[in-house]
């Protein structure tokens, strides 16, 4: 697997790899637009992203690029996801043939793995559900705009004793043993994302603090309360 650290140089993405002959190599035109699309859901992407590329599918890959032809020491690849094609300078990393397909993931540098299982400890403060997580700089972070209703729903259905004094909320972007709820991503608003609990038809908005835990808004969130 190739891992490239990229940064924004004007309208284009460039490689940040001081040890490589391709340091500051710029992805021009359509390929930068493809990376723009891939990085669109990552908070503060313009500060830098990590582009992971493999010629074999891997569990975390999100996108696939199909080789079209070789050109000028690189290869033209077509994005099946965005129906765009652009030039990749892959000759330092692959032989002259170039892989038939590229499988790609774009994440924040040093991001948590997408299969992480995380825990917060919500409690009631002045009538609102809030939580603290000093590891990411959050103190009395409130649940609002329907997210509080989803918490009311979960603690009620699970019969938690005195949840207002605090309970554990375990969450992940992948299913895990013991999870009780699944929430589907709906749409973005005000820097956060709306999620739907289909069984109850209740929606809740998760604020930008979501990106303290995920490099992009997960398509699904799986939750256990206890």
Q: Which spans have pLDDT < 50 for at least 5 consecutive residues?
A: none
Series of secondary-structure elements, N-terminal to C-terminal: EEEHEEEEEEEEEHEEEEE
CA radius of gyration is 21 Å
Strand content: 35-45%
Q: Number of helix segments?
A: 2
Q: Helical content, roughly?
A: under 10%
Number of domains: 2
Write up this protein.
The chain is built from 2 helices and 17 strands. It is 9% helix and 42% strand. The longest helix has 11 residues, at 147-157. It folds into 2 domains: 2-107, no CATH class; 117-225, no CATH class. It has 226 residues and is mainly beta. The mean pLDDT is 87.
Please give a quick description of this structure.
The protein has 226 residues and is mainly β.
Please outline the helices and strands.
Elements: E1 2-9, E2 12-15, E3 26-27, H1 29-38, E4 49-54, E5 63-71, E6 74-79, E7 84-88, E8 101-107, E9 117-120, E10 123-125, E11 128-133, E12 138-142, H2 147-157, E13 169-172, E14 181-189, E15 192-197, E16 202-206, E17 220-225
Q: Which terms summarize this structure?
A:
8-stranded antiparallel beta sheet; 226 residues; elongated; 9% helix; 6-stranded antiparallel beta sheet; mainly beta
């Amino acid at each position: 697997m190739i891992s490239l650290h990229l940064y924004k140089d004007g309208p284009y993405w460039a490689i940040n790899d001081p040890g490589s002959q391709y340091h500051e190599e710029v992805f021009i035109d359509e390929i930068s637009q493809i990376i723009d699309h891939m990085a669109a859901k990552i908070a503060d992407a313009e500060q830098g992203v990590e582009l992971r590329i493999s010629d074999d599918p891997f569990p975390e890959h999100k996108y696939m690029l199909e080789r079209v032809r070789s050109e000028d020491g690189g290869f033209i690849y077509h994005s099946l996801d965005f129906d765009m094609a652009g030039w990749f300078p892959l000759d330092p990393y692959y032989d002259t043939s170039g892989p038939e397909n590229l499988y790609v993931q774009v994440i924040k540098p040093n991001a948590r793995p997408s299969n992480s299982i995380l825990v917060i400890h919500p409690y009631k403060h002045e009538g609102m559900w809030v939580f603290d997580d000093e590891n990411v700089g959050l103190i009395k972070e409130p649940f609002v705009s329907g997210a509080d209703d989803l918490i009311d729903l979960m603690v009620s259905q699970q019969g938690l004793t005195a949840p207002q004094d605090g309970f554990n909320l375990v969450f992940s972007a992948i299913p895990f043993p013991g999870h009780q709820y699944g929430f589907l991503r709906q749409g973005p608003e005000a820097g956060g994302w709306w999620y739907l609990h289909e069984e109850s038809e209740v929606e809740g908005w998760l604020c930008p603090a979501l990106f303290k835990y995920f490099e992009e808004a997960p398509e699904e969130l799986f939750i256990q309360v206890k």
